[in-house]
Design brief:
By secondary structure, this protein is an all-alpha fold. It contains 12 helices and no strands. The protein has one domain: Orthogonal Bundle (Ribonucleotide Reductase, subunit A), CATH 1.10.620. The chain binds fe (ii) ion (2 copies).
Length: about 270
């Protein structure tokens, strides 16, 4: 069970539709995030199968983590449906799965259970910081419903990070991965994260609506706007702290690592 219920805790009817309806950037942001979150249910099984010997982890993955990720998607979808009811969400999501699922493969898992937890922590760092940025952006738009929703999702994502961190500590007691191995996973995962999912979601939206055609130039314009939003609202210090936490570095070494992490994050376009 999640800590909140989007049908009870988000007051969609309080959204000032006239204020946000023409904001195409916001429409894309919410729709893309809803696709990526809801799609987690289609590959969450890979992860619980990988940890099948650990009943406690499997129970947490299935009962909390997966359900919360899917709820994030449903809550965002409900926002889109409230403000842009004319958008054929289901049809566009179907197209997204068609394009995106072949890109997610089981063998993308890390070689040890502990190191896979590091990879999950990087993903949750990405989502935690992204929803933190969304909350800040929502406040700049003076849109309290979006701000509240982003805040609730942000708290879940930070909690996911903490749980993956807890499992990492558990597995690493016997695996004993050193800083070098951990850092390798961190950098690899940051590079891999890329923007493939965002681009695929954007493409699916445009192939479904309007002209039914994906225009790469309009995607470039969206990416530029995303970068502008990130520059203003993305919490870099929080991201760096979360990424480097499992390395347990002292302050001096940590300072030398910041450019490495920043460099890897640039790949993400933030
Ligand atoms: Fe999520
Ligand atoms: Fe998460």
């Amino acid at each position: 069970m999640a800590n909140w219920d989007y049908q009870k805790d988000i007051n969609y009817s309080a959204i000032d539709v006239a204020k946000v309806k023409e904001n195409r950037f916001l429409f894309h942001l919410l729709t893309i995030a809803s696709f990526i979150e809801i799609a987690s249910e289609t590959y969450a099984k890979n992860l619980s199968e990988y940890y099948q010997e650990n009943a406690e982890a499997v129970a947490w993955l299935n009962d909390r983590w997966e359900k919360e990720e899917v709820q994030h998607g449903k809550a965002l979808k409900a926002y889109v449906a409230y403000v842009w009811p004319e958008f054929p969400w289901q049809k566009a999501y179907g197209r997204f799965l068609e394009l995106y699922l072949p890109l997610c493969s089981v063998d993308a898992l890390q070689p040890t259970k502990g190191l896979e937890m590091i990879a999950r922590m990087i993903i949750e760092t990405g989502t935690s910081t992204m929803y933190r940025a969304f909350e800040d952006y929502a406040k700049s738009l003076d849109e309290p419903v979006f701000a509240h929703l982003s805040h609730l999702i942000y708290k879940d994502e930070v909690n996911h990070y903490s749980n993956f961190n807890r499992y990492f500590n558990y597995y690493n007691q016997s695996e004993n991965s050193g800083r070098k191995e951990i850092l390798k996973v961190i950098v690899q995962r940051l590079k891999e994260a890329g923007t493939e999912d965002i681009e695929t979601a954007y493409q699916s939206i445009h192939e479904t609506k309007d002209s039914g055609r994906f225009d790469p130039a309009s995607y470039d314009a969206f990416k530029k706007e995303l970068n502008r939003m990130a520059k203003k609202h993305y919490p870099y210090p929080m991201a760096i702290k979360m990424i480097m936490h499992p390395l347990h570095l002292n302050k001096a070494v940590e300072a030398t690592m910041i450019p490495v992490v920043r460099g890897a994050m640039r790949v993400l376009g933030v």
